[in-house]
Amino acid sequence: MVRIEKPPLGRSKAAAAPSKSGSTLNMTANIKVVVRVRPLNEREMELNNRIIVDVVDDKMLVFDPKEEIRPFYYQGVQQPNKNFLKRANKELKFIFDSVCAQSASNNDVFEITTKDMLSSLMEGYNCSVFAYGATGAGKTHTMIGNTEHPGITYLTMEHLFDILNCEKDRELDIAVSYIEVYNENVYDLLKPSSTPLQLREDSKYGVMVAGLTLHKIKTARELLNMLEDGNKNRTQHPTDANAESSRSHAVFQVYVTMRYKTSNQFRIVKLSMIDLAGSERASATGCVGERFKEGANINRSLLSLGNCINKLADGSSYIPYRDSKLTRLLKDSLGGNCKTVMIANVAPSSVSYEDTYNTLKYAARANKIQLSIKKNIVDGHMGPSQYVKITQELKKKIKELEAKLTLSTVKTVSREPDPAKENAKQECRKRIQEEEAVHGALEAQLLELMARQRVLSLRHALRTRAFSHVADLAHRSSTEAVDSMCTEEIPRQERAQESYVKQSVLLDSKVFTAWTRWDESRKKLYHLCEQALAAHPDLDYFVQNVHLQSKLRQSGALERLKQKLVSIQNAEINAFTEYMSDMPRMLKKLYLTLKGYDKVPPALTAEYLEVMKKAKSAKGITWSDKENDTDAHFKFITTLDTHKPSTTLDLTVSKNDANATVDIITDGEDLTDIENKEPVKLSAKKRKGTPIKLVNNETIIINDSFEILDTTRNINSAKKIKREYNIASEIENYGLIDPKDLNSTFVLTETSDIKKAVKTEVKMESQPVKRGLVDRTNTLQQRPVTFGDKARIVKPIVGKALPFRRMPAPTNPTNLTARTFGFGSSVPRDNSQQKNVQGRY
Ligand SMILES: Nc1ncnc2c1ncn2[C@@H]1O[C@H](COP(=O)(O)OP(=O)(O)OP(=O)(O)O)[C@@H](O)[C@H]1O
């Protein structure tokens, strides 16, 4: 028996732990994961529970397989099987390095786990095998077994002794230790003591157990007795799941010292065989009190083992070995210099459903671990004769290497490059580089021009959109606004449009010229590269690099362009958001002013409420310009396609349209009433709200409280009006008018016959014609602004909250138009329509 207190000296020192020095070989290997399914025990058989593990073959198993459902007959008819209470089967397929079915013996498990491992051990690798699983899953049976069925610890050692007996070149020493980790304390099972042993970490020898005794053994039988003795000292307590439940982790370690007879080198390898405590759930074992505390400690250490496994599987650089005694002990049995086999023991009965599932998941995770392992070779002290022998061998080796070197020098000389060819290659390189420089400059110029083209196009699109918006607002608001629109904004917009066209044409021609020159130089460069590759295939990297430079330039330019476009659009969005936030407030004031005069037609109320509802719900609004997603033009401006130069000019403004104008159709129907009616006298009753003094000294109260508005009444009145007019179906026949728009604004579209009639009617009235305003229809957004369409301004009256004198009722049916329709509708401008509608009214 050898007792190790400190790192021992000389051979025995090395025997305490494998050395990290002198490593000659590194290799990576997975943790080998073997799943063993134990047979049903008597209790499980009595319960006749479902089998939840189906071993498909020696590598695959299915957890919670689909059950065969027996047909159920009622009065001779097979009934549909609908067991709603039954949980669906997981039917999870797991593939491991090996799967041992219920029928597998300990010997079978040994054959596929540690037997092969021993040859690695004898080659100088640390090895370890550990059994993991819930309590009663068969870990101890697998690792220790019994006299009838010895476990793999015994079988491995037996085989190891067989190997040792066949050894001729090496002297081998075997020493073993057997320890348990119970409640986060380490105890020597072969030298029982109530005082726990301390773990020490040594930079040279790794983790060591201070005060641990090592026992030299010569035969496997000695070992069996030792294991038996040790197991008697192991902490065991009966639990619900296992009458002899091991409540500690048992670590059996074998140190093999191999001394080479010829070289005096020696290796120390360690084989660890670990029977872990059960990974049970407390509820499954029915543990309380002290047992519960044990269980908690077991689970804690297994949890930290799981964490280490997970981190190793993830390739993490920090592995939390220090979290528990168990992981500290197993440090070099998991991620360190070690070959590892994990045996995951599972029970097949549905009673252990959760535990089996958890063990399989744990095992699957462990399968991913990559270990970097190395042989442990330590140089020992050599005698003079050995030195002489080695020196001779080394001299021989040096001579061989010198000979090889001479040979390779000769070959190198003979392979010396042909200077003429080298010069030609250099020349090729030079010409390509020169052409590349020219091409690069042309490309940069082209990309710059294209980017300017895109920016110009975007700015113009935004300007046009803003203008159409302003125009729309102007003719909704006041005569003055429309006048100012016609005298200032439209000419300005026309000038901007002209300037845009000029700039675009200029840029387009510049782009085209630049592109032609760029394309020529591209072809030239391409040709040069092809020639160079044909003559010097080894220039392929150089040529690839040339092509990459161009790609890099293009993506850089595109990136800069996108940033520019985004910044322009952001500025636009900010301005628009600010403007939009003022609108509902203003609209509310306007509406309430009208309401104060009792001049709000129900249709307007309904529309107002609808708008305010939208404004209210638009708190978290994101101002997305959906059109841009689908707008081909927008897609075009956000790309730089050097293969095909294109124009940014909006070709929808065709030559034919040059003199066309756009209709401007203003509101006026219900509001004409407002204009003509006498103001309604305000009731004496004091109303809540903000008083506003009118020009004629009248005071109206603006009820600022949105909620106080009687929405039901207003909406109902709006509905009533719709019903009364009941023109929807009539108008629908034209395929142009959306009935829901009838009480709101305009429904004309470009292709409308009605519109043509409107134009006719416009001319009849010989109203002033302005150029440049947009068609104010509900489809305003979808229609591009075109200039030059014939426009008609009908005097706008919205925005005048002052009471006007009532005008005599018009006699001409044409002039009745304004009264006939709800607020904002321009439909009745068609004479024929008017008659129809008026008849109903
Ligand atoms: N493959 C098997 N063949 C026959 N019996 C088995 C097998 N595996 C386990 N058993 C029996 O099942 C019972 C529980 O097994 P074992 O003690 O090995 O479980 P364990 O996982 O070590 O439990 P614990 O963690 O509580 O110690 C024992 O009686 C054992 O003999």
From TrEMBL:
Pfam families, sorted: Kinesin
A molecular-function term among this protein's GO annotations: microtubule binding
Protein's UniProt keywords contain Glycosyltransferase: no
Q: Which residues form the Kinesin motor domain?
A: 30-369
List where this protein forms a coiled coil.
Answer: 391-452
Q: Supply the alphabetized keyword list.
A: ATP-binding, Coiled coil, Cytoplasm, Cytoskeleton, Microtubule, Motor protein, Nucleotide-binding
Q: Which GO terms describe its cellular component?
A: microtubule
Name the InterPro entries for this protein.
Kinesin-like_fam, Kinesin_motor_dom, Kinesin_motor_dom_sf, P-loop_NTPase
Its subcellular locations are: Cytoplasm, Cytoskeleton
Write out the GO biological process terms.
microtubule-based movement
Q: Where is this region: Disordered?
A: 1-22, 819-841
Entry's family note: Belongs to the TRAFAC class myosin-kinesin ATPase superfamily. Kinesin family. KIN-8 subfamily.
Q: What is the recorded name of this protein?
A: Kinesin motor domain-containing protein
- Which species is listed as the source? Arctia plantaginis
Q: What taxonomic ancestry is recorded? A: Eukaryota, Metazoa, Ecdysozoa, Arthropoda, Hexapoda
